[in-house]
């Protein structure tokens, strides 16, 4: 899809340059002396700008540069149902297997929220918008074990800052141990 968009953009830019060349040639032929020289400088400046724009488009539209072109395909190892409601998250599980594709099906019961997954170091790893009446799907593979945080990224009210949830990522045996510890403390 991105390659098609880049190709269409390149064709449109080429057509604009071609039209500008045709119009520019006819305009510069009618001028003489200093005016013709200025038109030539202006047209060189125009071509430089077009080349710069094409270069920037090439850099920004190439497949590796887009954040979601590396979405993982295939069946997820785990589907986590997530419901956002005023100042809290409800997840079907907070035990996530390491090195497995996880799909978060995220929806809201009330207002718009932002679903952000943060690493144990506090860096954002993935995010999606959470809207009432719509389910967004976010896929992510957790490559390191640890305690991750889910935080709301959209101002949703007075207790927005308290809208956090802990995820535990680890090997399957670690997850069973963590689940049993949580069961003992309840």
Shape category: elongated
List unreliable stretches of 5+ residues: none
Estimated radius of gyration: 26 Å
- Count of individual beta strands: 9
CATH topology of the largest domain: Immunoglobulin-like
Taking all residues together, what is the mean pLDDT?
81
Order of helices and strands: HHEEEEEEEEEH
Helix-strand layout with pairing:
Blueprint: H1 2-30, H2 34-61, E1 78-85, E2 88-91, E3 95-97, E4 101-108, E5 113-118, E6 124-130, E7 136-141, E8 146-152, E9 164-170, H3 172-185
Parallel strand pairs: 1-4, 3-9
Antiparallel strand pairs: 1-2, 4-7, 5-6, 5-8, 8-9
Which terms summarize this structure?
2 domains, 5-stranded mixed β-sheet, 3 helices, 186 residues, single chain, alpha+beta, 4-stranded mixed β-sheet, Immunoglobulin-like
Describe the protein's architecture and organization.
Helices cover 38% and strands 30% of the residues. It is of the alpha+beta class and 186 residues long. The protein folds into two domains: 2-65; 78-172, Cupredoxins -  blue copper proteins (Immunoglobulin-like), CATH 2.60.40.420. The strands form two sheets. A five-stranded mixed β-sheet has the order 3-9-8-5-6. α1 (2-30) packs antiparallel against α2 (34-61). The longest helix has 29 residues, at 2-30. The mean pLDDT is 81.
Brief description of this entry?
The chain is of the alpha+beta class and 186 residues long.
């Amino acid at each position: 899809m991105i390659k098609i968009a880049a190709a269409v953009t390149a064709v449109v830019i080429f057509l604009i340059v071609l039209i500008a060349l045709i119009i520019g040639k006819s305009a510069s032929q009618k001028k003489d002396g200093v005016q013709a020289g200025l038109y030539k400088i202006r047209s060189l400046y125009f071509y430089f700008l077009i080349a710069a724009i094409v270069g920037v488009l090439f850099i920004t539209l190439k497949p590796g540069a887009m954040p979601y072109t590396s979405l993982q395909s295939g069946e997820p190892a785990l589907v986590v149902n997530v419901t956002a409601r005023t100042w809290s998250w409800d997840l079907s599980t907070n035990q996530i297997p390491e090195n497995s594709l996880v799909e978060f099906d995220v929806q809201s019961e009330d207002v718009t929220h932002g679903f952000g997954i943060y690493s144990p170091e506090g860096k954002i790893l993935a995010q999606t918008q959470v809207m009432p009446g719509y389910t967004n799907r976010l896929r992510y593979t957790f490559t390191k074990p640890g305690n991750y945080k889910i935080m709301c990224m959209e101002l949703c009210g007075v207790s927005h800052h308290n809208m956090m949830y802990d995820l535990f990522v680890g090997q399957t045996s670690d997850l069973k141990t963590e689940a049993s510890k949580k069961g003992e403390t309840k």
